[in-house]
Design brief:
7-stranded mixed β-sheet; elongated; 238 residues; mainly beta; 21 strands; 6-stranded antiparallel β-sheet
């Protein structure tokens, strides 16, 4: 019986390579936030630019293989534990974090749980793959959100800036009489800074500041010249 099981396992994994190292994790800023907000086993979900997969800690090993890699590489799940105030483990589960592939509208995948291929029990979306003649788990991805400075509901203007992480990015413009020390932007994701300001209708010129250096808003194609001849980003609030 043991020899038969080994033979079946070898045939299932033929042509498949196990990842010798963990696949690249999301950047440390988002990864720490992602892990801290995990609540347990659930259906695969989106977190920013990442997809989070979870599995119960009822097995020894869980791996995942994706269609866009031809199911040729199996990525190992990580084990997450939560603790109480006395340091005792209160819960544990497996998880894997995947950065959303570019130009992909959906993802199909299979799991390997303790050496056996299976669909994802946490994901009700299962389809039949004509190429492999197998049932596979499936996820439809929403279109990638384009993040630009824009007018948002309730009378606010959302300013967006992409810059190296850990910086103090400020904003100044005609709405601050070009004082750049009034408003500092918040790094909402690694390298992405954001600030919502309640601006009344009108045309405004502004720039971003890092230290004493000013620079235009690259997410806003509208530019103009101020009264003193400097180039600045321009936005019209209606």
């Amino acid at each position: 019986m043991k020899r038969i099981f080994v033979a079946v396992l070898i045939s299932l994994l033929a042509g498949t390579t196990f990842a010798k190292e963990k696949a690249p994790e999301p950047d440390l800023f988002e990864y720490n936030n992602l892990v801290s907000e995990m609540k347990g086993v659930k259906e695969p979900y989106l977190y920013g630019d990442y997809i989070v997969f979870t599995a119960p800690h009822s097995s020894r090993y869980v791996g995942i293989a994706f269609d866009f890699e031809g199911y040729k590489q199996i990525h190992a799940y990580n084990l997450h534990k939560s603790y109480d105030y006395e340091g005792e483990v209160t819960a544990s589960w497996f998880f894997y974090v995947l950065e959303k592939p570019k130009d992909v509208e959906s993802i199909s995948y299979r799991l390997v749980i303790d050496g056996l291929w299976t669909t994802d029990p946490t994901n009700p979306q299962v389809i039949y793959d004509n190429k492999t003649n197998l049932l596979i788990s499936h996820i439809n991805l929403p279109p990638i959100e384009v993040l630009n400075t824009e007018i948002v509901p309730q009378g606010y203007t959302r300013f967006v800036c992409f810059a190296p992480t850990g910086q103090k990015i400020r904003i100044g413009g005609t709405f601050t009489n070009w004082d750049s020390w009034i408003y500092e932007m918040v790094e909402v994701q690694r390298g992405k800074y954001q600030l919502d300001l309640p601006l009344p209708p009108g045309t405004y010129y502004y720039n971003y500041y890092r230290g004493i250096t000013s620079f235009i808003d690259e997410t806003n194609p509208s530019k103009g010249y101020t009264a003193d001849g400097r180039i600045a980003s321009r936005i019209e609030v209606r």
